[in-house]
Amino acid sequence: MSGDGTDSGNPYETLDGNPYGASVEIFADESVLKEDWKPEKLPEREGELEEIRNALAPATRGVNAHNLFLYGKTGQGKTVAIDHEINLLQEYADDQDDLNLSVTKTSANNQTTSYQLCAHLIKEIRGGTKKPSGIDQQSMFDLLYDEISELEDTVIIVIDEIDTIGSNDELLYELPRARKNGHIEDQWVSVIGISNNLQFRDNLSPKVKDSLYDSEIEFAPYDATQLTSILERRADRAFVEGVLEDDVIPLCSAFAAQDEGSARQAIRLLYKSGEIALNHDDELVCESHVREARDILERKRIEEGMRSLTTQDQFALLSVVSLAIDEETPARTRQVYQKYKSIVDRLDGNQLVERRVRDHLQSLGMQGFLLATTRNTGIQGGSHYRFELKTDLEATLDILAEDNRIDSVVEDLVSVATAKNLV
DNA sequence: TCTCCACAGGAAATTGGGGGTT
DNA sequence: AACCCCCAATTTCCTGTGGAGA
Prior knowledge:
Layout: H1 46-56, E1 68-71, H2 78-95, E2 101-107, H3 114-126, H4 137-149, E3 154-160, H5 170-177, E4 188-195, H6 200-203, H7 206-212, E5 215-218, H8 224-238, H9 248-259, H10 263-279, H11 287-307, H12 311-325, E6 331-332, H13 333-347, H14 354-366, E7 370-376, H15 378-381, E8 383-389, H16 393-401, H17 407-419
Parallel strand pairs: 1-4, 1-5, 2-3, 3-4
Antiparallel strand pairs: 6-8, 7-8
Helix pairs in contact: 1-2, 3-4, 5-7, 8-9, 8-10, 9-10, 10-11, 12-13, 12-14, 12-16, 12-17, 16-17
The protein binds a DNA duplex through α14, α15 and β8.
Function: Involved in regulation of DNA replication.
Region (Disordered): 1-20
Domain Cdc6 C-terminal: 317-400
């Protein structure tokens, strides 16, 4: 947006007081900081790239590439790395007469079973718009084999976020063996799975591990030093020279490294810091901007998560909120459940059994809304969880109030909380 | 050391809803 | 209309467990 607005003939530049005319120059090329910007080099991942290359190499020799699994948390460069190598391989294949390569790259996002993933792959390969359905699983697999048979001789299927299928992994067993089992005659098929979940591997069934596991590569989280060099490379292009104070990049790196070691997160933080400086008309990006950016991003993350809660999750959360206002947190599961029952009663919702509410509470804990600690008070209380609110009470009430299914209860809670000076 | 509380949490069965064919 | 497939959420039933106090 700002990059080519430097024409001297631009009439808007002379408009004094136009709110869109920023008076300070922060960004040189903002697009470098966007989510979809792909770096052309990954110096921090040379070793991993090399391993990927070795695994793909057999494809260049006319047989199937090794099956491959990439592990690592989000923002560790897994997707970028595989894209990079696949592109190189594709380029190479284009130059060779005797290597015909088909690469299908997709994300298993939201496909929670083998059946759905299979349907999804069929859709991707066909390029159609809707997934086949209504048939049994084996027919679905057969349909996929039909599609694959139409492809080139060497087929590589890249499946991002493959962990969403959990332990429902039959497709992963079938696919690499399709040729051996006679479902496919002319193709070499290999599968590259990318997983954000490090435990995914342990939950795979033994036969999948057996048939699919040629090699795996783990992407360890970046440390602060690596994040710093990643950020520096980006910042060189993204920012006007000299606008970043010296401690900005190290601080962004440190924050991100403390958390998940995610490059994505570090870059977001840097970007946001720049935007804040810009909005304040500050000429330099400094440490306080970074801290402000971190708070904003953190709050946004929580808000987004909270808005996407299911009704039952909201009930459970509301129960804990209510207990917090009564100043009875941390509360054990039974207390929360009592509160839950009364709330559901008032709202005329579906009342679930305690076992299930426990699961909801756990999941709220995992998402960072609740703090769940285990405790054991022996013969007096046995071992149990204690839940308390981890997020800001006022913000939580604000967000919950947006939902008109539950706002009557929220309003009451707000008035109680106000009376007690809690918000 | 042994007990026993009050849960935690695994596993299997059930429910209900979406999509389909015949 | 009658029936089939798949699946997430839930219920039902159950065994497992860490430590305070006898």
